[in-house]
Amino acid sequence: MKPASHHLTxxxxxxAPIVWCLTSANGRRQPVNADPDASGNVAVMQGxxxxxxxxxxxxxxxxxxxxxxxxxxxxxxxxxPPPRRSSAPTPRATHGxxxxxxxx
Length: 104
Ligand SMILES: [Zn+2]
Prior knowledge:
Blueprint: E1 8-10, E2 17-23, E3 29-33, E4 42-46, E5 52-56, E6 68-71, H1 74-77, H2 91-94
Parallel strand pairs: 2-5
Antiparallel strand pairs: 1-2, 2-3, 4-5, 4-6
The structure holds zinc ion.
Zinc ion binds at residues 11, 13-14, 16, 74, 78.
């Protein structure tokens, strides 16, 4: 399997052919190299809604299911990846989550 041609786009930074996928874990957009890559650590599939979904191939679940293909996340090979963001939650992300203490 390969991504359908209408999914193909190019990396803004290095102009390599990529496809945007949604992570099956949390629905985030992730760029994946357009060409299938046997050494990649993710599996991509086209969902029934036409979107591409990507999941990490783990030691526990190494098998590639029918309709999936193995691919490489573009961040792994991009020669000029975007600055890495801290995984720590930002104050803005947690704002409003904490309960407001009672005021007397
Ligand atoms: Zn790139």
